[in-house]
Amino acid sequence: MAIKQFKTESKRLLDLMANSIYTNKDIFLRELISNASDALDKRHYLSLTNTDIKADDPHIDIEVDRKERLIVIKDNGIGMNKEDLENNLGTIAKSGSLDFKKELDEKSEVDIIGQFGVGFYSAFMVADRIDVISKKIGEDKAYEWISENEEGYEIKSAKKDDYGTIITLHIKPKSKEFDFDQYLSSDNLQILIKKYSDYIRYPIRMDVEITKATSEEGKSETSIENKTINSMIPLWKKNKKEIKEEEYDEFYMQNYYDYNKPLKTLHYSVEGNTSYTALLFIPSKAPYNYYTTDYKLGLKLYSKGVFIKDEANELISDYFKFVRGLIDSDDLNLNISREILQQDYQMNQIKKSLDKRIKNTLEKMLKDEREKYETFFEAFGAQLKYGAYEDYGKNKDVLIDLLMFKSSYEDKYTTLKEYVSRMKEDQKEIFYAVGESVEKIKEMPQIERVLDKGYEVLYFLDNVDEFMASILNNYEDHIFKSINKGDLDLDSKEEKEQNLKENEENKDILDAIKEVLKDDVKEVRLSNRLKSHPVCLVSDDNLSIEMEKVLKDLNQGSNIKANKILEINPDHELFKSLKKVYDNKEAIDDYAKVLYDQALLIAGLEIKDPLNYTKLVTELMIKAMN
Ligand code: ADP
To answer: Which residue out of 34, 35, 97, 143 has the highest number of ligand 1 atoms within 8 Å of its CB and is therefore the one to mutate?
Structure first.
């Protein structure tokens, strides 16, 4: 009998399958089991309307023959007749094939196979020959379909007593590139079944070696038992009321590789255009690599209980990517041979709904379970802030009320809403200070006076904080204002006038200091900002000194510099002494340099010439001691 050719696009696909090296080959088993399950569904459906048709004892049996290198998958489903074999397995020219052809042209082919699988054809990733023997329900004859490669297939009569399908895969020989032998291990196949097909509604049975201890001490005996490998009911399909919290915790820890229990579990179903069930977890701790590019999203996609893919990042916004769990939707048509176009719409629907659900959950947690929320925020707060900052603040409205900061009010987290509710009547701006730790911020020269005025200061401790504040600009019309900004407008009218006068009276010495420091500073001035400290550095445009530091941390080569203003405390003894020196016409160069370097050190910036700095300080000390 002549070998029939596969249709052109089938050929291309087969070629792709047979030679693909990147694709996750494991999925072939899931695809074949899924087909068997569909066939059992169809038989069951027929039995409902036709009393002649029985659908008792539906099952899928899997056998391995290591020696002959065979995997056999048997089902007692609807089966296929000659035409079915010809039409279903000889070509993929079905509903979605045109879309599919387009996809193939667009280089994304490997991705597509990896993510969605392409049904029956995926078996060619692991097998160099496939035999399908099938007998369709209600018919007398059985047929065999054989294909040894992408060139073609043949169909001939066969013998089979009962209805259903037997698929035999001839597993490829082990090669340098890939160890196909792994698919001949019964243990490994069981793992794959558990991983990908645990929730198939029909029993997937295998002969399993069982070792039992015997009554005789130290001895055991091995027997073969036919066992159902899959659990058949997924946790998320069980009735919520019947699930214990430990079951959720256990499920989470087993499936998402976390030693800690989840902080929050969400289990719900949505009915509508795109119905789905979600089982989601918010972890209690950030994985060690969370804030790196190595982090992998722990969100899985199932369709009708069949595992489709890991890392389903199209289902959730980036700023919620800490969420783990799964989505199971009966409405998704994920197989490429069907409609591929619909997916985007459906996936988007789910994403919107999921984002909203998580936002609401977090809001509720913040309101009702403050302590829990703080634990969450410790782990993933920086992610939310980054989310508010990203894309020029596109998502700020979603996230802003979920943000918290430590503040001078009490050593606890506060939300922006809470901050604003405590603002003084005359206060227009939201003050913040940037620093490495609460302790360091408390020691900042600039903070004393702001606090003395009775204003609350937010502590910006994460790198992203100030960048985010500059993108957000304001909260409820209150501008975010750094206490390090040049134009911090705290003074009363009298104080301002006094300051202006002092600056004028001391213009010469200030100019002289600026002369020494040259372009390192934009300006040298006396300020009311300081209370007990002699000097500080501030900046008065959008790029702050703290931002300069972050940029430098991110990229050591960064040469981006903030415009710096050296502010001197006119009431400090140091300035008074400096004035004496200047009035006596002595050189103030060394003093000016030391002063500036000190201001740099307090601001946490590097000084240009540490050797010169220590030399100068040493000289001044010797002078003072003599
Ligand atoms: P899909 O499952 O997306 O339709 P496949 O390439 O996996 O694509 O399968 C093609 C068709 O072959 C199926 O739609 C089904 O009609 C038929 N088929 C595959 N496996 C079986 C089986 N075990 N029993 C009956 N029919 C099957």
So the answer is: 35
